[in-house]
């Protein structure tokens, strides 16, 4: 790989990193929000590095005409740059949610004293899927008042389900999309909006059938389903 | 222009830059570069239009997302790891390491391993840093112990493990003990059996003064980022393929079998190539597997995985990788199992 190509590639790589963090916010489809600053800093370093190389080459070009060569394997770095620029792959959706269904994300640990009871109010409570799932497990574990008959509003995308209803889904990432696993809540009482459609579902806790001994998947009786655009932060 | 003018180029520059046989001979550098960029863009667009519909668009999307995610995630660690490594070679005097580390390599190995526990670093960063240490005259066995220990036992990783396994401090202790054990034994094994010719160490760069030193820093950094980055892309693509193509049911069906489940999770750690700061969360989600199997997953992952194999091959050469990687893998599985059966 020639020197001009090396510098060009470094600048392109840095520009791509800066573009997805500062310009579009697409980095949220790949990594956690906290990654914004290190990623932008790395992008800036790459742009400066490539730019400095270009400047130096321009100055040096008058002095000596020969070029130094870098490793050919570096060409592969063009692949993620082009992927970001041309394809802009979307956040993971129902395909990955179904594939990783056998190891769903553990809900966040409840507060030490357990979740407080949820009062019935006129306005629905906006709740993360993680909290809803955590509350649903506690509710099935002898504390039904943590969900009760309160109305909640959950946000996620639809994933098909065999055997009635559909899943309201949100992928959870610990570090990057490579480790994403799903939060899933079964939605009853409303037709599926179609796989990968983002929706906001208002509804109440779907109680498991009486007399059931094992824990069931958290579920919701939907009252309203509104389609929404994909949120800026697709992962929970 | 006279040919003799090229003496203006500093004499050490040929040491800083890679030998010409690492690259290809270009026809006209900038044209070739632009053509290749345009070509790969066209290829991706064509793939998107004609090949993707034939596969499963959602699978292709997921592959691309995971591929980009692994690259994006590793990029800052790579850039700052390389910067640290370049800074070590360009600015830290060679005598420093011989003062910090014990003179005898056998004693330097555990010290270097313990140093890894202090410095927070991702595995992508530790490979170039270890290369920089070797270039600065640190014994390869000690640098390798550092390479293995740094991503596995640093404070960030231990805290994330504690968060992922709430109320189970023995998981954190087990991870620390088994990882450090693996790193130190691997270092000693390399000291006892390794040969210098297997390991390609970048030539030691003479430190120049002023402008020249910054220039050495810049070109060392550019070279290492491009080189390691290319291999990182290979690792990212492999990890994305595993993520999208490996049937999840295969993994679930072996969870209950004792020895097999340990080996499967060890292999899975290699294939999934998750960064060491995140792998605890994945291990926590692998319910159904025994604690020992999950500990082995945590010990193997930061030391051997697809992107590390690619990076180590890139930095230290194939002759090194084919010997050191199986050695590390075997040691990590054995010490993870041993520590797990005692502690968990």
Task: Itemize the secondary structure elements and their pairings.
The complex is a heterodimer of chains A (236) and B (344).
Chain A: H1 3-23, H2 36-61, H3 78-87, H4 94-99, E1 125-126, H5 129-140, E2 151-160, E3 166-172, E4 181-188, E5 198-205, E6 219-227
Parallel strand pairs in A: 1-2, 4-6
Antiparallel strand pairs in A: 2-3, 2-5, 3-4, 5-6
Helix pairs in contact in A: 1-2, 1-3
Chain B: H1 13-16, H2 29-54, H3 57-91, H4 95-100, H5 105-118, H6 123-135, H7 140-153, H8 155-164, H9 169-193, H10 211-245, H11 248-253, H12 258-272, H13 279-285, H14 291-300, H15 306-316, H16 318-343
Structural features:
heterodimer; A: 236 residues; alpha/beta; OB fold (Dihydrolipoamide Acetyltransferase, E2P); 2 domains; five-stranded mixed β-barrel; 5 helices; 19% strand; elongated; B: 344 residues; mainly alpha; 16 helices; disordered N terminus
Provide structural commentary.
The complex is a heterodimer of chains A (236) and B (344). Chain A is of the alpha/beta class and 236 residues long. Chain A has helices at residues 3-23, 36-61, 78-87, 94-99, 129-140, and strands spanning 125-126, 151-160, 166-172, 181-188, 198-205, 219-227. Chain A has two domains: 3-89, no CATH class; 95-227, OB fold (Dihydrolipoamide Acetyltransferase, E2P). Chain A contains five helices and six strands; from the N terminus they run H-H-H-H-E-H-E-E-E-E-E. In chain A, helix 1 (3-23) packs antiparallel against helix 2 and helix 1 packs across helix 3. The longest helix of chain A is centred in the N-terminal third of the chain and has 26 residues, at 36-61. The radius of gyration of chain A is 24 Å and the shape is elongated. The two termini of chain A are 41 Å apart. In chain A, 47% of the residues are buried. Chain B has 16 helices and no strands. Chain B is flat. Classes of the chains: A alpha/beta (236), B mainly alpha (344). Chains A and B meet through helix 1, helix 2, helix 3 and helix 4 of A and helix 2, helix 3, helix 10, helix 11 and helix 13 of B. Chain B: It is a multi-pass membrane protein.
